[in-house]
Structures are given as structure tokens and as C-alpha cells.
Queue: 2 jobs
Job 1
Amino acid sequence: MRAAIPSVDEVLRGPAGQVALARHGRAATVAAVRAALAVLRARMGEGAPDRAALAEAAGTQALETLALEEAPRLRAVFNLTGTVLHTNLGRAVLAEEAIEAATRVMRQPAALEFDLETGGRGERDDAVRGLVRELTGAEDCILVNNAAAAVFLMLNTVGAGREAIVSRGELIEIGGAFRMPDIMARAGVVLREVGTTNRTHARDYEGAITERTALLMKVHTSNYLIQGFTAEVAPAELSRIGRAHGVPVLDDLGSGTLVDLSTYGLRRERTVRDALGDGADLVAFSGDKLLGGPQAGFIVGRADLVRACAKNPIKRAMRLDKIRLAALEATLRLYRDPDRLAQRLPTLRLLTRKPEEMRALAGRLLPAVSAQLGPAWQVAVAECASQIGSGALPLESLPSAGLSLTPCDGDGRAPERLLAALRALPTPVIGRIAQGAVLLDLRCLEDEAGFVAQLGALKEG
């Protein structure tokens, strides 16, 4: 019976084997063919299997295995969750200008740390320093790989071995178990808590300042709000206290925005310029949230403190590469034309999208989705509420619309199976379950044709 098993060479000479060799190379193809033959050998029963058929089956199996192995693990998806800046889905979608800039420096060398005027060594953050100063009013700035790194770097630079005074109500934990007390400890700073969870007063800060105090810190409670019987010290007041005692004030602004969002119909969020205007000596914020750029962390503020952060040896371990710097520079340039910013910056475009636009889109998609799912599902246009995400304006909801997919037989597990089937599409569709139905919030769907084109591949489990 084993004599019927074809050899590796026989499989490689077949049509599927030849395609696999051309696409994936000899080493990977041989390994896949051997694995396929081993499976066939284990499954063989009685009878006299056809040797040519087995060779074809082994080649086909090897080709499928190789294709699966070669598929990228980091795949583009349709974000229909209703969360615009979804941390698990990569946060901000980049503007076309940023994508083009990143692609350009990927294809050829770039003057990353080379001064074209002098011919000497340059500094990579110079690519965006002028723009950041212009847009924020900061004296100076440096870039690191995310906002958490920015917070760590400025804490370690300004406060290592000494105390940092922070309100108990601002000792945040955000996604991924990022806890401010833990970051402070790793940065070598001694945490000094003041006030209570819900109420902190100026006298609490003033009473805690000693010769061991290195800094006062304001932390943006990015993903929650404390309401009711509360009190907090305003940033400007905290800066006044810091100046009176000769203690720097650091402001972890969280998401960080460069524009007044109320101009675009959203609730106002404190801007970077606001934080600096309130007197903060250093401000840290993100590049891939409300700013709408690639992942990055900014440290802006007083020139002497920024330079001290730049000279910290840890900074080298956190620096940005040429690709992200190019994308960030292109993103920041969009802010110089505020009249067209909402059209050119995807994050702002999606956040300001009108509900009637999503409602009309849902109406156009409904027939195709309903036809694909068949009579087992009721498909309807649904009103829903989107959110900004990534800790920005945690209580702010955005009126939206989408499709509600409800199983007609009341099967409580059907929505989970449908979500899994949607995730298995060539471009996975990520939705959510709400009130026993699959909800596809259409706020972030801009490629309508691409979404419809792949519906034929939907296979509900």
C-alpha cells in the first residue's frame, strides 16, 4: 500500500507543485509537500489508491498550506465597531499625504541625521521641530515612539531619585495595564500622592512640597471621569504653585489635540497650546490619537528641560525611525491649512461625519447584505452611537447609523458565529454585538465598493 505514495519529486513535477515552487521557493515547497504526504500516508486505508491522484492532492494541499503561511499576520480590516480610534485596530488611519511621505523615504535614503546645509551630523527630530513649535507655541520639542515613552522619559529626566507629587484622582490605569504609579517607579521617581480620589485642593500640593520634590504632575484622566462631589486643581493654578516653589510642572495630556474640536462640532478638549498656556513646563501627548498621525510621543515645552530629555541616554532607545517621522511631518503640515483639515485628515473626517451620511450608506448596503445572509437573518438600518476611542473624550458619543443583523430563530449564539464569519472574510469585518444582534456601525466605512465586493465570500458557521 505504501508503494502507492508518490515521491516528493513526483509531487513537485505536478501542476500544483510547479506553482508552489514558483511562488514560494524550493525549500519551503519541499517541506510543505513532505508534510502533506505524511498526512496522506496516515489517512490511507484499504484499497489501491491512485498514485497520480495522490500526487495531485499532495501538491494542492502543499500549495494551500504555503499560501496560508505566507498570508500577512498584520491584516487590514473594516472597522465597523463604532470606535474611531480603536487601539486594537491601530488607532488613527493616516492621511494620503502621510502615506506618500512614508513610502518615499522607504524607497531611498533620507537625510535623517544629516544636515544638508553644513554637511555634518544632524538631529532626526529637526524634521518636525519647527512645525511643532509653530502649531503649539512650545519653545522646543522631541519625539519618542509613543506617549507612554514620553511620560517615562520626562519623569526619569526631571525626577529620578526624587519625589513627584500627583493627585490621587489622577493615578490612572489605561489599556494594557499601563499604571502611572508603576511607570513612576520604573522611571526612578518616588510617588507622593496628595488629596483624595474625588477631591484635591491647592493646599494639598503646597503642603507636600519639600526639598525632595522634583516635580508636580498633572495627568489627564483619559478614559474615565469622576463626577459628583469633586474638586481638582486647575492646570494654571498648579503651574502657579510650581513657579512659587521653583518646581517644574509636567502635564501628561494623554491623547493631545492641536485644534479646538468645538470648531468641528465636537466637545472641546484641552489642546497642547492650552496646556503650555496654562504654564506647564513640559507636556507629553500622542501622535496616533486625536492628532491623526502615526504612533509617536511628543515632549514639548521649556527648551532647557526638553534638551535635558534629549540628552538622556534612554531617549535613543525610544526614538522614531525615518518612516514615522516622514508620516508625522506630512500630517503636521496638514494643520497649517485648517480650512481643509477635516477633509484631508481621516481621523477628523470620520469624527465629523454626519449621521445622515451613514444612514444613507446603510440603506444602500442593506439589500446586498440581506441577500447574502438570506431569510435566516433580519437586516435593518439602525441608529447607533459611535465613540472617539483611545481614551479621548470618554463620555462623548457621536450619533451614527449602521446595520443591525438579527437571527430570525432567536439563536443566542448565532451573532457570535456571524461575527466569526465576518472576521474570516478576505478583508475581515470587525463589528460588535448589541441587544442580541450584530451591529455594524458604518461611521468608519469609506470603501463601500470593497465591502460589497467581498460579501460573496461570507460563509456563516
Job 2
Amino acid sequence: MSARDTGSLARSLSFGLGATTHVLGAAAFLYPFFLPRRPGGGETAAHASEAPVLFGLLAALALAVAVAEMRRGALDARRIALLGVLSGMNAVLRLPGSVGGASPMFLLPILCGYVFGAGFGFMLGAWSMAVSGVLTGGVGPWLPFQMWAMGWVGAGGSLARPFRSWGGLPALAAYSWAAGMLFGAVMNLWSWPFLSGGSPEMSWQAGIGTAEALRRYWRFYVVTSLAWDGARATGNVVLMLVLGRPVIRLLERFRARLGRAAPVLDSESETPTFGGAARHGSVLGRISS
């Protein structure tokens, strides 16, 4: 198989694995709405049985995507190291907590999605949420859902890339506000179908239909989450306007230094090498360059 065919196969594999990751996440959030009756156990038991499986599947898919990205030359050891460092930094940003819902944890995933692309933004958001769960004692059945939601926040940062010619910052600020609202609206779905004992006007019931379910969820969202998420969205905008431009410049310097990742297959011998070391020198040499 030629190097071009191998690269095409790696791109297709990477796309397929990424799409599977997103479809699995959407299914994990939405499947309770397709059950013939309300799931039992209440909020405390929501997804308790399948959460470890979902976490394992998400971790395995993220690892497989990383390997596929390395195979096609879009990821190398230096980018993986950068992803690990930024994930740890972003997890630490959650430690001070939030003020009325506002948290600095949204800034880095959005900006990395903008600078490095949707895949990098998704992985940073997901893994930094996992690390922060360990640091804050927030490990529970909600964690894989938080990882997907924050990963989507980071991936969505790439939506502002077409507006680079306008400076990018206004589009990023607008997206930061939307991400703050949508994160809360999506995260409510992990437990809302399991809630019982509340007002029938705000509770989900099997068979009520999509339109009625949306009306009930809107009432529930306004009462329980709108003010909190509005504060988060406003905080995101303020942080983006204050810190966005200098952080973008810093990330773009990193991107320029990293250059394009070395392909995993040597194009002359077409034999597997670790990070393309046969043509580009050792991995340690490339990291320190």
C-alpha cells in the first residue's frame, strides 16, 4: 500500500472514529427519551449502571482517534505533550469553583478549537473535564456526560475560524456566550428524564410527544438553570474579551513552533516508524527542537 493510500485510509478512519464518538455521546444523552416508560431510580441513580461503560468507550474512542491522527500525520508526540499540559492547566482552572456559574474552564478549549481545530478542542475539553473531576472529587455517573459536553464546547471553537479576517474575537465572544448557555441546557438532559415528584408541567413523561417535551423542558430550564447559565455565558464573554487575544497569540506561537506533525510512515521505505523518526529524527530530538 502506498503512502498516499495509507494517508487516505488514516483520514477516513479518523473521521469515522470521530463521528462515532459524537453519535455515541448524543445517544447517551437522548436514549432515555425513547424508553416506553420513565427510567426508575431518580436523579441519584441516573445512568449509574452504564456510566462506567460510557466512560470506557469514550476513553477508548479518544485514544483510537489520537492513534488515527498520528497515522495521518496530524498529531505527533509534541502535540500530545501539549494536549496533556493544557488539559492539566484547564483542570486546575476549575479548582477555584465558579461565581454564579461563570468559570474560566471554558476559555482554553474554545481557543484551542479555534487555533488547532475541532479535534484538538474536543480532546482538550473532554480530558480536562475528566482530570478536573478527579481533582475536585466530582467523579460520578455525570462525568462522561460532562466530558462530552465540554468536548463539544471545545470543538465548537473551530466555528469561529472563518471569521479570522475580522479578527476572530467578536465571533469567539458570541460563541462563548452560546457555549455557556448550551452547556447547561445539554447537561440537564443527563438527569431530567429520571426526575420524579416535580410539577407535571416541568417533568418528562413517556409518550408526551416532542413538542410537549420541549415545552416542559423549557419551563424546567427557566426555573432551574437559566439564571445560572446566563451568568456563565456572561463570564465567558468577559474572559474572552479580556484574555482571548493574548492567549490566541500564545497558542499560535506554539502552533508555528510545532509545525506539521511528522507522518508515522516513512514515505520512502513505507515501514512503520514511531512518529516518523526514520525521516525526521528521534522523537526526543523533535520535542526538544
